[in-house]
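From the pipeline queue, job 12 of 40. The input is one protein chain; the requested action is below.

Action: predict structure.
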Amino acid sequence: MNILIAKITPDNNGFLALKEESMAAGFNMLRRLEENWLNGQNRFDKPGENLLGFYADGLLIAVCGLNQDPYMPSVRAGRLRHLYVGIEWRRMRAGITLLRTILEGSERWFDFINTNAPQSAFSFYEGAGFIPLADAGNVTHRLYMNTYQFHPLN
């Protein structure tokens, strides 16, 4: 299998199909990603930000973004956004591979990374080293970069 992780935009081939799949599954993150991209609200273009796609044999199977957290006063706070893995590709390490790739080197920009995950993804984030937060508003999990150690996949 030919795997490629690369910068993307909502204009990339395969994004529309992945967005439609996510919406049919009850998730709106890729619709919001596209909407915010098109209106210029979020282009993942500030220091430390990135929007990546995971391709398997040329097919876009997953998306993940990293921003400066707009809900925190410090630019050293990151926010993981819009992580979605196609249904057929879950539990095949695509999500963790994409997450590790987008986090690699992010300690240069961020002290910690927040996310607001759906309940169904809690075990994924906790398995990846994120700490669950209670009563933290729009943050369910946080990863402290000074304790995160990047381990390349075997």
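Job complete. The domain at 3-144 is CATH 3.40.630.30 (Aminopeptidase).
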